Model the fold of this input.
Amino acid sequence: MVQAELRSLESSDVPNMDLQAFVPDDSTTFGIPVGALIGPLGHDGEELFSFFVCTPNWLYGTVRATDYVFGKGYLFLPFYTYQILWNAIEKLCTSTSAPTWMEVGIKLSRYSDWEFENYTEL
Done:
């Protein structure tokens, strides 16, 4: 069986892409894109799985302003801390395994936007 492993987290919306040092203006009302580099446990290589990480307060304000928001790829946190973010995605990874990496990627893409989702060879 192939097991998913979280390798790192990054966000282009955070100074120096350093999520560990990131402190939002309001930790209970924020939303940022986050890329999770995930690979097969014990093997080289990793792929990008993207989430929009936000709080219910942020979502509520956005829905009120725009009337709707689609939900695939969203990760909701009660407030921002790097540890909660890491733990949430790490738990998703440790609970995801399959006979092949492709099947692991498909499972993870139920919760995220995978860079190879819907990929077909030419």
Observations:
- The longest strand covers residues 31-40.
- Helices lie at 56-66, 82-94, 101-108.
- DSSP finds three helices and six strands in the chain.
- Residues 8 and 37 are 5 Å apart (CA to CA).
